[in-house]
Design the sequence.
């Protein structure tokens, strides 16, 4: 039987870079919230012993697709735990709405949805912590999507602490450029020495993103989009970009600004939510 599983976007409501580790990765302090908007996966399980992706994702080879990689990793882990049903297989299709490389975490979210959904459908019995441990090997943002609660993240994003930021309405806009995460992290001009602060201090300070200055400098399109949105509402970059979000108290206020968007800007309006739509689906809400 085919079932539908949400794969939501995330925003980094703030993102600070507090240092660089010897392996080159950066230590962060970031606040994740989900959006009630994202991709949808259709999944059916079978006894074919194969993982099949029925809908190719443009520009991503099937073997590299995080959907397929997550399913294969879950199979290995369940096999080691002796909880994998005989010849476990799955057919997966995706309705992709999230832009790739947009800082909305679409690929990581897809991986998390596959881990959570197949663990449920195959009844492989892995705990959320075990799923998150598999997930972090696929991408730094997978654990937060697996756990499914808005979170303050530290380290490279794997140390999570639940948080409850206000659930605002967001206009999320894409400037039409694609930005590579490593290119931003390798930029010599990147701010990477923001002092470590407590969550209470961060929540009571204005929110900002340390990647924004270098991204605005490198990409005129992002710079212009942030300047334009700031005329209407508090606005900033999510993750390493390219998407930018503006916050509003009501859906209609966000939609009014979206209607004024300049040519070449695509966008959507969605609510920020502290419980992931994936968690709600799992619980049957
Ligand atoms: C920084 C965030 C915030 O959400 O940016 P977005 O990708 O969402 O924009 C993410 O944690 C990103 O996670 P993800 O996109 O999975 O990054 P990865 O594939 O793990 O890393 C890509 C590359 O970025 C650099 N990198 C990534 C994360 C990090 N904390 N420090 C780094 O220096 C490394 O060079 C790494 O090789
Ligand atoms: N199922 C998938 N959906 C999106 N991207 C994927 C997927 N599988 C692999 N990728 C790769 O992951 C990269 C990052 O995608 P994504 O998570 O959407 O962006 P970001 O981390 O900037 O939010 C893509 O550019 C793509 O090469």
Sequence:
């Amino acid at each position: 039987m085919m079932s539908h599983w949400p794969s939501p976007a995330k925003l980094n409501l703030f993102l600070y870079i507090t240092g660089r580790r010897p392996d080159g990765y950066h230590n962060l302090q970031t606040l994740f919230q989900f959006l009630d908007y994202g991709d949808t996966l259709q999944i059916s399980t079978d006894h074919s012993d194969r993982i099949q992706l029925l809908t190719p994702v443009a520009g991503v080879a099937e073997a590299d697709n995080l959907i397929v990689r997550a399913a294969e990793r879950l199979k290995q882990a369940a096999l080691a735990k002796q909880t994998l049903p005989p010849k476990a297989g799955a057919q997966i299709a995706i309705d992709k709405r999230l832009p790739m490389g947009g800082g909305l975490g679409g690929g990581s979210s897809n991986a998390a949805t596959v881990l959570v959904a197949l663990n449920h459908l195959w009844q492989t019995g892995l705990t959320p912590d075990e799923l998150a441990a598999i997930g972090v090997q696929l991408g730094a943002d997978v654990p937060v999507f697996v756990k499914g609660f808005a979170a303050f993240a530290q380290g490279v994003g794997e140390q999570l602490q639940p948080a409850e930021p206000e659930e605002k309405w967001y206009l999320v806009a894409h400037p039409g450029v694609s930005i590579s995460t490593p290119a931003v992290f390798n930029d010599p001009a990147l701010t990477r020495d923001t002092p470590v602060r407590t969550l209470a201090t961060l929540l009571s300070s204005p929110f900002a993103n340390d990647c924004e200055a270098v991204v605005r400098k490198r990409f005129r399109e992002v710079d212009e989009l942030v300047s334009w949105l700031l005329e209407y509402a508090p606005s900033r970059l999510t993750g390493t970009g390219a998407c930018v979000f503006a916050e509003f108290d009501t859906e209609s206020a966000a939609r009014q600004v979206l209607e004024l968007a300049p040519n070449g800007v695509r966008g959507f309006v969605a609510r920020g939510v502290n419980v992931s739509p994936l968690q709600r689906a799992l619980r049957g809400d």
